[in-house]
Specification:
The chain has about 180 residues and is α/β, with parallel strands linked by helices. It has seven helices and six strands; from the N terminus they run βαβααβαβαβαβα. Bound molecules: zinc ion.
Length: about 180
């Protein structure tokens, strides 16, 4: 299977200034619905991989995080945009866990559970660790300029840091994926 790994906050939904801690503040970007529908129609698994250190920092219960993730999945599904899985890392950066992006624990779990070929897959995100994880996984990478994307663009200065494509938002990112 081929997959598109999607970051959550700043890529699929609006980012909150600190962390998205309140279900009522979940706002999905308009472009995300069509973007995920296109992945569904074109044979890509749509898989969310999200760092949620707010849990490790004690700002949110893991169960509350799961409720936000379920709401995201359901709100997308109401408009026929289907996510295949949502993987999250709840750990604090200092925990040195194997799952926090740019580490690849969540990607490897997805590979096992969905039989994914990373070389045929893509990563879409708004942060440096999305691009770094994607490159380390052997995927093609797309930086979106929503969320923290504009700032991230300035941080990715090395030639080896460059994403394969830069898109204004998730829909144009997915349209590029489908043209490859
Ligand atoms: Zn982790």
């Amino acid at each position: 299977m081929k997959a598109v790994f999607l970051d959550r906050d700043g890529t699929i939904n609006h980012e909150e200034p600190n962390y998205l801690l309140d279900l009522k503040k979940l706002k999905i970007f308009d472009e995300s619905f069509e973007a995920i529908q296109l992945l569904n129609k074109n044979g890509f698994k749509a898989i969310v991989v999200t760092n949620q250190s707010c849990v490790g920092r004690g700002l949110l219960e893991e169960q509350e995080l799961q409720q936000i993730n379920s709401a995201l999945k359901q709100n997308l599904a109401k408009r026929k945009a289907l996510l295949d899985s949502i993987y999250y890392c709840p750990h604090h950066p200092e925990d040195q866990c194997p799952c926090r992006k740019p580490k690849l624990g969540m990607f490897h779990q997805a590979v096992k559970e969905h039989n994914i070929n990373l070389k045929k897959s893509f990563v879409i995100g708004d942060r440096e660790f999305d691009i770094h994880a994607g490159k380390a996984a052997g995927c093609k990478t797309i930086l979106v300029l929503t969320g923290a994307g504009q700032q991230t663009l300035k941080l990715l200065t090395k030639p080896t840091d460059q994403p394969d494509f830069i898109a204004p938002h998730i829909l144009e990112a997915v349209q590029w994926v489908i043209r490859q």
